[in-house]
Amino acid sequence: MKILVTGSSGLIGSEAVTFFDGQGHDVVGVDNNMRAVFFGEQGDTTWNRDRLLESTRAFKHFDLDIRNREDVFKFFGENKFDAIIHCAAQPSHDKAADIALMDFDVNAVGTVNLLEATRQNFPESPFIQVSTNKVYGDSPNELPMNELETRWDYADPKDYNGITEECRIDRTLHSLFGASKTAGDVMAQEYGKYFDMPVGVFRGGCLTGPSHSGVELHGFLSYLVKQIVSGGHYTIFGYKGKQVRDQIHSYDVVRAFEEFIKAPRAGEVYNLGGGRDNSASMMECITMVEDMTGKKLDSTYSDQNRIGDHICYISDLSKLRSHYPNWDITKSLPQICEEIVAAADGKAANA
Q1: Domains in the chain with CATH codes
Q2: Measuring CA to CA, how many Å separate 256 from each of 16, 111, 226, 265, 286?
Q3: DSSP state string for 212-237
Q4: How far apart are CA 313 and CA 178, in angstroms?
Q5: What is the maximum alpha-carbon separation in the chain?
Q6: Using an 8 Å Cβ cutoff, are 137 and 172 in contact?
Q7: Most C-beta atoms within 10 A of its C-beta, which of 86, 160, 233, 293?
Q8: pLDDT grade, residue 170 (50/70/90)?
Q9: 11 backbone dihedrals φ, ψ, rounded to 5°
Q10: By the 8 A CB rule, do 3 and 15 touch?
Q11: What 3-state DSSP class applies to 114?
């Protein structure tokens, strides 16, 4: 197969490139390093692009801006792709407020450009939209919760497995990022259902791994590890540091994509995170990484939580597992942390 990966220098994009190239597929990546525009030097992903070009079998990279409709249509007209994995995005709900128009152009307009280019040229090719749990806004915060010693957790046993795809996505505070991603999410569903195209929408929890260029405004676990390893400062925003996230390794994310490409469905939506087993609060993650590194985090606490932030978010993976029984989580949270620590140690040693 010939597979297109947008955002190929980012966390999930680079994992997809490595995975499918390793299987012998021809992988084409597009990435114009917008992450450096969003987040400055710390967000620069050219190191990851260079790593892919050196380590892969036949990966080809193109510097394409998905906001440019004419260039996208020309690119699709000159290439035939058997699958499209759309990872490119402005990923920070904090940063979006400062760059509202750019955020919408990347997350919403860029997505519809790719969907329409696919429809016009090869509508039979599976299209994967990497969405986010932020499409639910802060509606998950309405669930009854208990405050435990180190985390918040759902109070009602029926919510134990987490948030399902039935959670509403409107009448809730999203952040501008959440709203722009919701626009792309719904448009991807519509192309699948209206045009009967094989489009899958994956609403990510905390996607992470050693290839993450984590910054304060996006990439919680990667950035946390970086600050502990380097001795940098970290600010905990609200909820007493007990807010819960479910971490999923980028490899397990891409494995879900592989299963969808093998047996695609039209406009289907899946929650994709680490689930209950890989859930942990910020406090719990800090303790885990401190124990692994033997270093203490230099941190301060702010009472102001991030706007629209989730108090407790765990992805219910039941639907994904039922549709694709060959998929499951393979990387535990301690394994994920160990990989990120090793990567951070390596970068610190080479700095």
Answers
A1: 2-350 (3.40.50.720)
A2: 11, 20, 28, 13, 28
A3: ---BTTB-HHHHHHHHHHHT-EEEEE
A4: 15
A5: 57
A6: yes
A7: 86
A8: very high
A9: -60, -60
A10: no
A11: helix
Q: The tokens 């058997």 sit on which residue?
A: 82
pLDDT of 172-210, one tens digit each?
999 999 999 999 999 999 999 999 999 999 999 899 988
Q: Can you tell me whether residue 307 is helix, strand or coil?
A: coil
**Residue 284 carries which side chain, given as an amino acid letter?**
E
Q: How many alpha carbons fall within 13 Å on the CB side of residue 127?
A: 30
Token representation of residue 150: 């180190």
44: helix, strand or coil: coil
* Direct distance between the N- and C-terminal alpha carbons of the chain, in angstroms, rounded to an integer: 38
Cα–Cα dist 281/285, whole Å: 6
Which of 159, 186, 156, 187 is closest to 170 using CA atoms?
A: 186
| CB-count burial class (<10 Å; 0-12, 13-18, 19+) for 347 | middle
Q: Structure pTM?
A: 0.94
> pLDDT (tens digit, 9 = 90+) per residue, 311-344?
999 999 999 999 999 999 999 999 999 999 998 8
What is the C-alpha to C-alpha distance for residues 25 and 85, in angstroms, rounded to an integer?
14
Q: Helix or strand or coil: residue 102?
A: helix
Q: β-strand 244-249 against 206-208: which pairing, if any?
A: parallel
Q: In 3D, which of 256, 240, 274, 223 has the Cα closest to residue 327? A: 256
SS3 percent helix, strand, coil of the chain, rounded to 5, is: 45, 20, 35
pLDDT tens digit sequence for 213-243: 656 655 678 888 888 998 999 999 999 999 9
Give residue 137's identity as a one-letter amino acid code.
G
Residue type, 40: G
3-state SS assignment for residue 14: helix
* β 279-281/244-249 pair status: antiparallel
